[in-house]
Structure formats: structure tokens, C-alpha cells
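Hi all, posting the design record for the shared folder.

TITLE: backbone redesign
STEP: 1 of 1
STRUCTURE INPUT:
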């Protein structure tokens, strides 16, 4: 049986089993994981919660479950989008209508709680964005170091008389895409 730790263990992109169940719209798995301690408000590296995953893919059954469970509807991803924004961007009209109604109800019932949830969501999003920027800088430094190491090895091979082609050594700079994802930007430099 899965433990709370297993249900919240992230993969290389920070997605948990809870996120994956919501992403694929598997309501039975989502219920089971949440009942065993899976946190539906936990974000992946790009700031997407389980509600983001379900709403951007139009899984209405998972969206209704997560909202009724009490998931933060105000959570922001690294692009500062809410789950409602992602449903709008992906034209999931049924999800849009439901989330809009749920958000309006929550906002009218308890304005102080909503204000605090929105402020927390904004702070959390900005922290994640800074973490991603640090990861990007670190990856670029590591890549630059590796490129210098390869260039040095090439020069040593040439000085020892080895035949080395004059093909430029590719280097990869990691950059954040508009969606907040890290993507390689290949460049070439000649020796």
C-alpha cells in the first residue's frame, strides 16, 4: 500500500502521483491517492497543481472532485495562470463555467480568506520563479564548464597528432520558455 510519502513523491518534473492522476483524468486513482495523503495543492516545478492539470485537460470529473475537496482555486503557476485561466486557454467551456461559478461563490462567502489565498498564491509563484531562474543559471554554468572541458580535450588530441574534424562543438544554453519550462537553446562555437 502507498504511504503519504509515496503519494507526494515528485518525479524529475516535480509531478506527483496526484498530479498525474488529475492530468490523465483518472478520478478513481485521484480519489485513492488523495485519501492516502496525496496533496492536491502540491506544485510541480512549473507551478501547476492537480487542479491546473485537470482543468487544462478538461477533466471535469477531477475538477469537481478537487474543488469539493478544498483545493486552492487561486493557486498560480509559474506563468501566473490560475486553473481557470488554463481552462480558458484550452477552450474547456464546461470547466470554465464550473470554476467561474465556484470562484464567485467562494469570493462572495469569505472575502478575507480569498484575499489571503490570493496573496499566498502570488508569493509562492514568485518564489518558484526565482528557484527556476537559479536552476537555469546553474545549468548554464555547468554546460559552459563542460564545453570548456571538451574544447581542452580536443586541443590535447590535436597536439598529440590525432586527426580531429573542424566541426564546431555544440553548446547548449538552458533558457526559460514563455511557459516557464527549461528548454535548450543550441549554439555553436568554432575552435
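Okay, here is what came back for every position:
SEQUENCE:
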Amino acid at each position: 500500500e502507498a504511504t503519504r510519502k509515496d503519494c507526494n513523491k515528485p518525479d524529475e518534473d516535480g509531478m506527483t502521483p496526484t498530479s498525474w492522476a488529475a492530468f490523465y483524468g483518472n478520478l478513481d486513482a485521484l480519489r485513492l491517492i488523495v485519501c492516502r495523503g496525496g496533496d492536491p495543492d502540491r506544485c510541480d516545478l512549473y507551478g501547476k497543481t492537480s487542479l491546473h492539470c485537470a482543468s487544462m485537460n478538461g477533466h471535469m470529473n477531477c475538477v469537481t472532485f478537487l474543488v469539493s475537496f478544498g483545493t486552492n482555486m487561486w493557486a498560480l503557476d509559474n506563468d501566473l495562470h490560475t486553473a481557470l485561466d488554463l481552462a480558458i486557454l484550452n477552450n474547456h467551456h464546461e470547466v470554465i463555467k464550473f470554476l467561474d461559478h465556484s470562484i464567485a461563490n467562494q469570493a462572495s462567502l469569505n472575502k478575507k480568506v480569498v484575499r489571503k489565498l490570493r496573496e499566498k498564491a502570488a508569493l509562492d509563484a514568485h518564489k518558484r520563479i526565482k528557484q527556476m531562474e537559479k536552476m537555469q543559471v546553474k545549468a548554464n554554468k555547468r554546460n559552459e564548464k563542460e564545453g570548456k572541458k571538451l574544447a581542452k580535450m580536443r586541443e590535447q588530441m590535436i597536439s598529440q597528432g590525432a586527426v580531429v574534424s573542424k566541426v564546431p562543438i555544440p553548446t547548449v544554453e538552458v533558457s526559460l520558455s514563455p511557459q516557464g519550462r527549461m528548454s535548450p537553446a543550441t549554439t555553436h562555437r568554432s575552435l
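COMMENT: The CA atoms of residues 47 and 77 lie 4 Å apart.
Let me know if anyone wants the other runs.
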